[in-house]
Amino acid sequence: MIPKIIIVSILVLQCNANCGYQSCTGTKEGAINVHLVPHTHDDVGWLKTVDEYYYGANNSIQHAGVQYILDSVVSELQVNANRKFIYVEVAFFERWWCHQTDSTKSIVKQLVNEGRLMFINGGWCMNDEATTHYNAIIDQMTVGLKFLEETFGACGRPLIAWHIDPFGHSREQSSLFAQMSFDAFFFARIDYADQAERMKLKNLEAMWKSNPNLGSSADMFFGTLYGPLYGPPHGFCFDEACHDPPIQDDKNLSGYNVDQRVTDFISAVQDQAKHFKTNNIMMTMGMDFEYENAIPWYKNLDKLIKYVNEKTNSTNIHLLYSNPACYVKSLNEAGVTWNTKSDDLFPYGDAPHNYWSGYFTSRPSIKGYVRESNNILQICKQLEILKKSKFSSEILKRAMAVAQHHDAVSGTEKQHVADDYAKRLSAGRARCQELIGTTMTSLVTGKTGINEAQYCEFTNISICAITESSNKFIVTVYNPIARAVTDYANIPVDGNVYVVTDENKFVISSQVFDVTAETKRIRRTRKGSSKVLIFPYSVSALGWSVYHVTAQSYLTTNEMNSKGISKYTTARIPFNGDTTIKNKIFSLSFDGTTGLLKSMTNLLTNTSIKVNQSFYWYDPNTGDSVSSQPSGAYIFRPIKSTPEPLFNGKSVSLSVIEGNLIQEVHQQFQPWLSQVVRIREGQDFAEFEWTVGPIPINDNNGKEIISRFDSDIESENMFYTDANGRQMIKRELNHRDTWDYKITEPVAGNYYPVNSRICIKDPKAQLTVLTDRSQGGSSLKNGSIELMIHRRLLVDDYRGVGEPLNESGQFGDGLMVRGKHFVQLAKPSDAGKMHRSLGEKLYMAPMVMFMPSAVANTAKKIKGSLLQHQIPENVHLLTLEKWGDDTVLLRLEHQYEKTDNADLSKNATVSLKGLFADFDIISVQEMTLGGNQLLSEAKRLKWKTADGLVPTDYKPEPVSADTLSVMLTPMQIRTFIAKIKMH
């Protein structure tokens, strides 16, 4: 129980709170007000690991110790009540906070309540915007915002989004920030030509029309920092590591320099002010990991403010300690009409030949691991609500939040830091797998506190001890989607004949075939299965199903005579002529001469295209100086705009598997590059599973590998890529919406982030390729789609990471990567439904686990669901997460855009009353997207544009009191904290 005296103290602090916009004072009417913003940018891993950065370890790489920054700043803020500071990365702050005494915590709370220490952005990290999925972005923001809300209340609630270091900016990111009720979004890195144009037109600050589906309620005021980047004006860095002269104000000493320092600063102010529309400008006084000793910063800023302001009457320049919120308040009160933009800010180029589009693909294994870990996390959070395990999702939540950092999933970190991110994810996954296994054991058998389930991490290369060594085992499938799902299980086995039965002992059709030679090559000395067993499964919404697998030696006579007994299928070499694989929906034809894909047909709609698919490589520039910019972890710069083909001679090596459930074409392009193209019965897509690596470098040359589809679709130089897995953004070759684009890099300058899908279309057909991880992609010619799948480079690109992107892999000779592209062909009117449905299944895939056959003897509920009924097809259950002892965080998402599908783009309604089987929702409170503020209390600033005052207030249809019905419009996400009662 909290002592009453502490409760009184907290109440007094809250009553005396003068935070947020209320804390903004000190501007001078009629003068140029210079808002000095003391700040530090603390990467949550980059050159050093998260732990090394926090403690100040491994300083031989980079001198940085975040704990000392916070110690020093808190101390110096107490010296002068006018001083201010902003902090961003909650992953660091929360760790520091947990180490503080009660007296220090009380001081910090007072600083926050007075607006002298302000949290900006408020996520666990400052996430990347190109290679992150919107689900993971929302989650990482939620982790940070929840901590701030619970620790500091309303005064800890950030007002401004602050992405000063990510390398380009996404329209969906802006939309998400708007839905989190931020009033403005500031960043530093935009294309050099875009920035020059905006400076000339005084357009560095404007309104971003972030989401056409949500209208002006998603509009976001944005500002591009003047620079350099997010640092102070040249000559005015006062950190210990800087070499700029301090302000020496003793006239009795020979080093007196106040007049010169004031003159220089006034000149910097005048240079900046002429590029902005109002008489307010913001100067960011700080940089990466600065303020470890805050004394020199604040002593010199105190003096700078004093001596510049002494000349205000003659210069009309007034300096003040400020923060982004107070700066935004001044801009909002200026009465200016702001311009608008509706495109995004990719790719980022910092010079004519330096496009940061390489990191869209860098470190493909980490990118795939992060995406897969997100899948596990969502399942873990759902099952945690049932309280059947002592484990929690917290470790994986935090590991996933850290992994969204703009030097994590982006692939722009040092190798040992990438290893650390992977270790954190692995530890979190292990805890969640225990939670999931224990919960599933309880659901299936009724036993509590026991984990009978095993999760095999390496089924993609056919390694799974329990299925290889057992003649009888159980396959348990959990489906995290709020609709029933039918898919296929791929099980590593060593036998030829199996029977698979469901919960009713009905035999399920299955098929067995050999693992590929390529799989064995990847495994090298590791043992694994010799064959793969596949069978279709069906699992209910938020439900589970159990299947029994029995090998031939254990089969009964009846089972041996079953029509559903597995069929062992061997690969064959096709005869002369074309080869076709197909199911009842999809057909692929391969050229008999080259062995390459030749045509593709959707049999249901009779939509057919000619299409060739193959692999190519770009030869990266390896310049040895900044002036001859090389490709690296960040930058993509090929020597030639035409890539080289990656198959020798006239034909790729080809073999075919034809079975009752699955048909495959196996292609070998190089000893280190192969592909399996497969079609399964009942599925409306083809799966292209590629295996790349180790990329050879014996020619002392790096290589950047792409998969390219060349079709007869008349795409007219237009293509579409997703924004963080949600909105589809129209792209035009060699074009930017907001400035006259000069072609300097015809390939890299046209590459865009592909987080989940890319497509081209004409009036008759749409070709869509979905990915299993973030990649860079483009359409560089009519009818073409290309995706970069792997990169290995031998030089650094001079952007700070200081080592080449040359991953050694598990065996030390180079990274091997196996991934998938999922290809759909449809009429344009049908394509939206197809790719939205498949996209949901890919990032929220059912989880396949294995249990010993003995579990069957104690099974009580081998098929079930957490839902009483499934939700509409166009609605996605985005979040179901334990929030408190009797509350859950619930997000419902309309996953279609207005233009996707005539039927599914309509409004949808979900009733929460009686929706869940294991608990009842008693009441709900609607929150902003971050879950940290009641929606009814969220009032965003209004900005004057040619369209009127924006954003308009976000006013969703009220939740009905009796049925708890929630109505959703296209692309709308509604967030609730729901009070529940367990059954």
Keywords:
single chain; 7-stranded beta/alpha barrel; globular; 49 strands; 983 residues
Residue share in helix? 10-25%
Tell me which oligomeric state these chains represent.
single chain
Report the count of strand segments.
Answer: 49
Rg? 29 Å
CATH class of the domain at 4-24 and 32-355: Alpha Beta
CATH topological fold name of the domain at 4-24 and 32-355: 7-stranded beta/alpha barrel
Beta-strand percentage range: 25-35%
* Alpha-carbon distance between the two ends: 29 Å
What class, by secondary structure content? Answer: alpha+beta
Query: How is the biggest beta sheet arranged?
Result: 9 strands, antiparallel
Average pLDDT number: 94
Gross morphology is: globular
CATH superfamily of the domain at 4-24 and 32-355: Glycoside hydrolase 38, N terminal domain
User: Which CATH-level-2 architecture of the domain at 4-24 and 32-355?
Assistant: Alpha-Beta Barrel
Low-confidence blocks of residues: 1-15
Number of helices: 19
